[in-house]
């Protein structure tokens, strides 16, 4: 299940990359902001669903609380991303400043997702090493 989690986080990384593209696409869109950013918003909802399921898969992998915590951190930051977009008032200086944190938070989402993927990779390697050493012990006796 830990390998599946690692693949799942890879899917999340791909969606995050697509999200950056869609943000640029929406920023240069010719229609209303609602139309221009509709794909960005839909992909954001998909990212939230993938992040939510990531918590479940991290727990099912029985890899420990740190991995589950990182998976939950990703979801928490995704929820914060929506709140930032919700509370920023377009056309106002405070709104623009608040919305500036939307991009910074997106980088934080990527960072926490990457930390989660690296931890999963390390845990897979440790499990493999333990399994190999356990197989070698009876052969030596």
UniProtKB/TrEMBL annotation:
* Keyword set includes Membrane: yes
Q: Which InterPro entries match?
A: DUF6220 (IPR046192)
* Domain of life assignment: Bacteria
**Which keywords does UniProt give here?**
Membrane, Transmembrane, Transmembrane helix
Q: Which residues cross the membrane?
A: 7-28, 40-60, 67-91, 97-120
State whether keyword Membrane applies. yes
| Name the UniProt record assigns to this protein | Uncharacterized protein
């Amino acid at each position: 299940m830990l390998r599946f989690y690692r693949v799942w986080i890879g899917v999340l990384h791909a969606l995050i990359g697509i999200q950056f593209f869609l943000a640029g696409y929406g920023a240069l869109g010719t229609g209303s902001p609602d139309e221009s950013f509709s794909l960005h918003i839909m992909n954001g909802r998909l990212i939230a669903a993938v992040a939510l399921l990531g918590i479940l898969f991290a727990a099912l992998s029985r890899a420990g609380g740190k991995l589950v915590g990182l998976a939950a951190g990703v979801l928490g930051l995704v929820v914060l991303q929506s709140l930032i977009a919700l509370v920023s008032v377009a056309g106002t200086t405070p709104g623009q400043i608040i919305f500036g944190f939307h991009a910074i938070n997106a980088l934080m989402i990527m960072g926490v997702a990457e930390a989660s993927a690296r931890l999963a990779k390390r845990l897979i390697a440790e499990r493999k090493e333990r399994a190999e050493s356990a197989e070698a012990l009876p052969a030596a006796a």
